[in-house]
Specification:
Structural class: mainly alpha
Number of helices: 3
Helix content: 40-55%
Shape: flat
Order of helices and strands: HHHEE
Low-confidence stretches: 5-18
Strand content: 5-15%
Radius of gyration: 21 Å
């Protein structure tokens, strides 16, 4: 009887967990965006990300949320703890005298892990 109760409790908790997922990334209002625009977009992007997320991971939810907020003109995090706004990509970190890539077609990526 306790195994049956545990399974029922788990099944009941899964939809609840999906409804309460929240982004683990911090988006900031874009340049020229009002706080009202930001909160409306945040709500819409949370809804959009959760509809696409289904039973996926937190990472996939965060990516969908980040893409949505960026597409609406808000600032989103990039690697290195920086934020970027649409149309304001950071300058390249390559030195000005860096050589160009070699000519020809790049090699194929290495094979992935076997399953």
């Amino acid at each position: 009887m306790s195994l049956r109760f545990s399974v029922l409790a788990l099944v009941a908790a899964v939809p609840l967990a999906a409804c309460t997922m929240a982004p683990r990334v911090v988006a900031l209002p874009g340049t020229g965006k009002t706080f009202e625009q930001f909160t409306a977009d945040d709500t819409a992007c949370r809804t959009w990300a959760s509809q696409r997320q289904g039973s996926s991971s937190q990472w996939q939810y965060d990516m969908a949320y980040t893409q949505c907020m960026y597409s609406r003109g808000h600032r989103v995090p990039i690697s290195g703890g920086q934020y970027v706004s649409p149309g304001a990509m950071p300058a390249s970190t390559l030195p000005a005298d860096a050589p160009p890539p070699p000519p020809g077609t790049p090699p194929p990526p290495p094979p992935g892990p076997s399953r």
